From TrEMBL, chain A:
Transmembrane segments: none annotated. Its cofactor is thiamine diphosphate. SMART domains: Transket_pyr (SM00861). CDD domains: TPP_PYR_E1-PDHc-beta_like (cd07036). Keywords: Oxidoreductase, Thiamine pyrophosphate. Gene3D superfamilies: 3.40.50.920, 3.40.50.970. This is 2-oxoisovalerate dehydrogenase subunit beta. Residues 4-179 form the Transketolase-like pyrimidine-binding domain. The gene is bkdAb.
UniProtKB/TrEMBL annotation, chain B:
This is 2-oxoisovalerate dehydrogenase subunit alpha. CDD domains: TPP_E1_PDC_ADC_BCADC (cd02000). Gene3D superfamilies: 3.40.50.970. It comes from Anaeromyxobacter paludicola. Its EC number is 1.2.4.4. InterPro entries: Alpha-ketoacid_DH_E1_comp, DH_E1, THDP-binding. Its cofactor is thiamine diphosphate. Keywords: Oxidoreductase, Thiamine pyrophosphate. It comes from the Bacteria. The branched-chain alpha-keto dehydrogenase complex catalyzes the overall conversion of alpha-keto acids to acyl-CoA and CO(2). It contains multiple copies of three enzymatic components: branched-chain alpha-keto acid decarboxylase (E1), lipoamide acyltransferase (E2) and lipoamide dehydrogenase (E3).
Amino acid sequence: MPTMNVIQAVNDALRTEMRRDANVVVLGEDVGRFGGVFRATQGLHDEFGADRVIDTPLAEGGIIGTAVGMALYGLRPVPEIQFADFIFPAMDQLVNEVAKYRYRSGGQYACPMVIRSPYGGGIRGGHYHSQSPEAHFIHTAGLKVVVPSNPYDAKGLLISAIRDPDPVLFFEPKRVYRAAKGEVPEGEYEIPLGQARVTREGSQITVIAWGAMWHEADQAVREAAEAGLDCELLDLRSLQPLDVDAIERSVRKTGRAVIVHEAPRTCGFGAELSALIQERCFLSLEAPITRVTGFDTPFPYTLEAEYLPRAPRILRALREVAAF
Amino acid sequence: MRREIHQNLVKRNGHGGQNGHAMPELPPFAQRPAPHRPEKEFPLETVLADDGSADLSRLHLPAERLVSLYRLMVLNRLLDERMIQLQRQGRIGFYIGSIGEEATVLGAAAAMADQDWIFPCYREHGAALLRGLPLQRFLCDLLGNSGDLMLGHQMPCHEAFAAGRFASISSPIATQIPQAVGAGWAARIKGDDMVPLVYFGEGATSANDFHTGLNFAGVRKVPVVFVCRNNGWAISVPRERQTAAVTFAEKALGYGMRGERVDGNDLLAVYEATRLARARAHAGEGPTLIECVTYRMEGHSTSDDPRAYRAPELVEPWRKKDPILRLKAHLAWRGLLSEADDAALREQAQAEILAAMREAEALPPKPPLESLFQGVYAEPLWQQREQLEELRAAVDADPRAARLREEG
């Protein structure tokens, strides 16, 4: 089985789906001959041609608006937004068009597409190359939101997302684009959307993370184990649909929950998870549900290590929750 | 980071600002004439003369089709008048009509091929009827009742009709423009003979999506026909406050595409301009922007009263240019329609509207509870299944939960 990083796995998923289905097209800024600024579409232009790997003018609203028309007409577009921070010019198309097209036409039309976009901090990119905007889209009925943490999941989830009948926001953790490596099967395989993965079983605290923050949580959980704290770690992988059963099962067992995400805390997805846990696991809880997150500021340039919920901050929260 | 990448690309490609294009020889800067004179270069194209005569060599519409389009224009007008009345009586919640703009709406739609998609703004229900949307279904949309194709999900006049390749309507302005471009682009990728027609008002030309849509289409010569319904008003804002350009047609130049400016109250002119634009798009010559100069005779919708912002004398000259009167004069000039024919078809249209309204109003006034969650996703999520149960229980326990007001 070949070893790949996340970018290579994304590239492999795109290639696999484009070979399987002639309706799959890629479009965006610099995705063509150049192969994308992160190289996620490298080689696709040569293999599939300029009709299916489309360099668009520089306008995110135009990319998504055009993709809507393509999807309505029966293509399966996979638009790339170069950085998640640049997705906001396309907000109207995403929130009012992509998300609502099936609903507002009473199911007469569907608008399936996968919007791929690198997200997150830790790359010295300042606040226009570091944001984690997932909550905006989870909050918009009609959209699905997927965030892989590793190459195996990236490929399997992207293939599932492309085959999904609904529009999917696919946020790729650019901080671990190259750093996260692993074995990735050749050919096609699907990881169903809406299934979390328990990456470490434990009995005392449930730790919930996704994307790049799974790696920080994983380190924190390992360090906690050395200190005698037995944590269970969940990689959500898909935020909408959400595997609430996996969360419920784990928290009922451990009685404690720590949620980790790098987006700002207020109204971040951690708030929703926290509400769901208290609604479903109230009588099992032994300690307050705790969030370790980015702060309520724009993403900083110089103090980004401090801003990101890195392992030491997570570990501190684990100790406090255990001692409550 | 994006800038660095850009600079690297420029370095690699070995050129700076000119992109390698050879510039034509021009006289010295100070002596150059003004670049263009839009009022001369984009003259208002008219086919129908005031007396109803027309150069028949310019017509590509069989007489029978012309009469049926006239009938539809009349139906559209009577429908709008009747629905505005019903809104005032409180029988429908909202209405947005096309009184005075029927020639633009129907002339453009009629010039497209059956397989072509229509991306409407929100005044083009006439085009949906042309594509076969049953009148009764349209009225169900206005009522949002159990017969509504949109399952009561949209406010009135936001219809979609997939069987007629009539796309779904949204209230945000101009969003349908890049979508139409995407559909035309997709058809070309698939090798299909399909050219989308997209309507928008002149106010939409101020919005981002107008620019991105026309720019994408121009760059890639996407087969699509852009119809700007310049009716003079975006709610209360006159066209002079939307653009400093002399015409909307000239905006085509900046996108490297052809622009046309036609008399939007002349069905024959709109039809002809659209027919030619479709033929060019099909031949690979790219998109066309057609400005149809018309006038919004009523308010923007039933939610505004134009007397608050528009002097009545501005409207008066347009009454003589009524698109229905003009086509009627033409049909009379050709001996295709007598006064008696006209009276009969009006009576028939009124009867059709009344019958359709009776049928629509006989249906249960609300779609079933579960329709609230239908079509958000292909399959409902667990959250929606739970929420439906929660709602059912609440309504069962206290029916007031299903009413907006105590008395309703």
